[in-house]
Write a structure and sequence with these properties.
Elements lengths: L2 H20 L4 E3 L8 H13 L3 E5 L2 E4 L2 E2 L2 E2 L4 H8 L4 E3 L1 H7 L11 E5 L11 E5 L9 H11 L9 H15 L2 H11 L4 H14 L3 H9 L25
Parallel strand pairs: 7-8
Antiparallel strand pairs: 1-3, 2-3, 4-5, 6-7
């Protein structure tokens, strides 16, 4: 093998290790490794698996092995479903509320919604809900959890209405950039009207730009009324057509 090929191999291996170490879920796929060809990335991952530095956990998906007091770490069921379905999933139900910091309940089986026409062949122990005909959007896990929480009308929150509003306000104001807020708003256009209404009310209550929430208001039938659930405590709920 030429010196150039050896350098390419080392480069792909280094990139694969770095990517696996930096991933929040310690999972890496061939397409995650940038700067080398897919063939080089695939060989690097296979080589690292042979060396025991990574473990193949699904077709094209590898896990970075990390030692814990209980032995080698394992990827979560939710992370596995997200990776194998190329991120066409969102946490929902109690899983979404927990991720948002609105519940301490951690479901024994992670609850996920999957956008597609068929359930995954292997859900890795997660409880999966199929949402046929719905379009997925490139949202982060936290953003997706927010839309699902609003879809459920806050039913899985363990916090009261006031604390829930404070937490969601901090998320929108401090943790999401304006570009991410626009992406979230655009994704909400494919949600039921009640989700658009609650999100618009949250945007306005948090003091975000009118250009962010006005498209949501215009998307609503002015004669409709919506069940805001826990979010009915929003001061502007009636202005956004809450029942």
């Amino acid at each position: 093998m030429s010196e150039m090929k050896r350098k390419r191999g080392r480069s792909a291996t280094e990139l694969a290790l770095r990517k696996a170490a930096s991933a929040s879920d310690s999972l890496v796929r061939v397409e995650d490794i940038q700067g080398v060809t897919p063939a080089a990335a695939s060989k690097a991952l296979s080589r690292l698996a042979e060396q025991g530095k990574l473990k193949r956990v699904a077709k094209g998906v590898y896990h970075s092995l990390k030692k814990t007091p209980l032995g080698a770490s394992k990827p979560s069921a939710a992370a596995m479903v997200r990776r194998t379905l190329k991120d066409k999933t969102r946490p929902t139900g109690a899983s979404a509320a927990n991720l948002l910091g609105l519940s301490t309940q951690v479901p024994a089986r992670p609850q996920l919604v999957v956008f597609g026409s068929n359930l995954p062949a292997d859900a890795y122990g997660a409880r999966v809900h199929l949402r046929r005909g719905a379009r997925s959007h490139p949202l982060t896990e936290l953003e997706g959890a927010l839309l699902e929480f609003l879809r459920d009308r806050g039913a899985y929150a363990q916090t009261g209405g006031e604390e829930t509003l404070k937490r969601l306000g901090r998320l929108l104001k401090s943790e999401l950039s304006e570009s991410r807020l626009r992406e979230l708003r655009d994704a909400a256009q494919d949600e039921p009207p009640r989700v658009r209404a609650v999100l618009g009310a949250l945007f306005e209550h948090t003091g975000l730009s009118k250009s962010l929430f006005e498209p949501l208001r215009k998307s609503l039938n002015p004669l409709s009324k919506f069940d805001f659930g826990l979010l009915r405590e929003l001061p502007n709920a009636l202005e956004w057509q809450a029942k």
